[in-house]
Design brief:
- The longest helix is centred in the first third of the chain and has 34 residues.
- Helix 3 crosses helix 4.
- About 12% of the residues have low confidence.
- It is built from 5 helices and no strands.
- It is mostly helical and 108 residues long.
């Protein structure tokens, strides 16, 4: 009887260990998916048409050439331009984080 209790205990411990190992593996897979979503990977692999995006972004600017030049630099670095003619920086955090030497926002 003592041998069967020992075997059952070993079996339960082994199953518990395997369950924990499987749960940890799934947690790592989910963490990987959350930090690198498929749509983000696809988005990064596709080059954006910076010229068209910056023309749309700068269409209302009083200094369009300056705006397009700055926007083009930011777009080339970040591969994204926020929608609309101003604001919406939360759509492209990289674009919003670029600053000049004077710590002013570089991207229009």
């Amino acid at each position: 009887m003592a041998v069967s209790k020992l075997m059952i205990t070993c079996l339960l411990v082994t199953l518990l260990f395997l369950h924990q190992l499987h749960a940890a593996s799934q947690s790592n897979d989910l963490h990987h998916l959350n930090t690198h979503p498929v749509s983000e990977d696809v988005y990064k692999n596709q080059k954006m048409d910076c010229g068209a995006a910056c023309s749309a972004r700068c269409q209302l600017s009083s200094r369009q050439r300056l705006c397009k030049r700055a926007c083009g630099t930011c777009c080339a670095r970040c591969n994204c331009v926020p929608p609309g003619t101003s604001g919406n920086y939360d759509a492209c955090p990289c674009y919003a984080s670029l600053t000049t030497h004077g710590n002013r926002r570089k991207c229009p």
